[in-house]
Amino acid sequence: MISRLWAKLGKSSPKAEMPQLDKVPDHVAIIMDGNGRWAKDRGLPRIAGHHTGMKAVKRVVREADRLGVKYLTLYAFSTENWKRPKDEVDFLMRLPQQFLEIELEELIENNVQVRMMGIKSDLPSYTIDALEEAMERTADNTGLVLNFALNYGSRKEMIDAIQAIAGDVADGRLTPDQIDEQLMSERLLSRDIPDPDLLIRTSGELRLSNFMLWQLAYSELWFTDVYWPEFNEAHFQEAVLQYQSRKRRFGGL
Ligand code: IPE
Ligand code: IPE
Ligand code: MG
């Protein structure tokens, strides 16, 4: 429609800037925030925002895959989110099951591998069962790794790692001088995943909210005011474009 209009005006259509496909971040992590405010603005209950947020998850998974991102980590529920009203927590716990019921077949078709990063033991069985089924059925897939951070908290993750390391030292399996960055990384829940190259947070909040504090040490950060349920392919492209314009120095020159 718009291109026809431009043709009529005798101009070539304006080409939107597209990410360079050879410089796409390997690992994008997203703090999907603003569901509640999105709903409130529309006079809807907060859970309506969470429900609509699933559509944004679908869009972003497809777009990340299309661009050649290798790992996509989505912060879906933090260890602090248990403080919310029970009804909301219950609804959030049902979402993985709902999402996978609709999307798992397509994820399998697209060679996506589903993973989960978080404390499984506190999750209801229907949540964990749905995720485990998805992880099992996609375990051999070699495409995009879709990593759900669910009941995830970075401080707890680090404390658990340190306790395990301390146990190994106490039992003589490790000496203190063997503790280095690599060992620590291998003890975290993200052990099989490289550190994020790009972190996106939606909804205008400028904080990490206990998300991947160790792993984000040198990630590029990108914030947008857009609420998660409205986040779309163009926003994702904008973030990747920004990432591509950054110069990562890792402390060097
Ligand atoms: C993000 O949206 C989803 C979760 C944290 C589970 P919020 O529910 O935090 O929405 P806001 O920040 O209250 O708008
Ligand atoms: C972070 O969002 C957690 C998730 C997106 C799952 P919150 O909405 O819980 O973060 P705060 O409370 O605003 O820091
Ligand atoms: Mg929030």
Describe, in plain words, how this protein is organized in 3D.
- This protein has a domain at 24-73 and 86-151 and 194-203: Undecaprenyl pyrophosphate synthetase (3-Layer(aba) Sandwich).
- Helices cover 44% and strands 13% of the residues.
- The chain has helices spanning 2-8, 35-41, 46-67, 86-109, 125-138, 154-170, 181-187, 233-245, and strands spanning 27-31, 71-78, 113-117, 145-152, 198-201, 220-223.
- A six-stranded parallel β-sheet has the order 3-4-2-1-5-6, sandwiched between helices.
- Helix 5 links the parallel strand 3 and strand 4 (145-152).
- Helix 2 packs across helix 3, helix 3 (46-67) packs parallel to helix 4 and helix 4 runs parallel beside helix 5 (125-138).
- It is globular, with a radius of gyration of 20 Å.
- The N and C termini lie far apart (48 Å).
- The structure holds 3-methylbut-3-enyl trihydrogen diphosphate (IPE) (2 copies) and magnesium ion.
- This is Isoprenyl transferase.
- It comes from Paenibacillus radicis (ex Gao et al. 2016).
- Keywords: Magnesium, Metal-binding, Transferase.
- GO terms for molecular function: ditrans,polycis-undecaprenyl-diphosphate synthase [(2E,6E)-farnesyl-diphosphate specific] activity; magnesium ion binding; manganese ion binding.
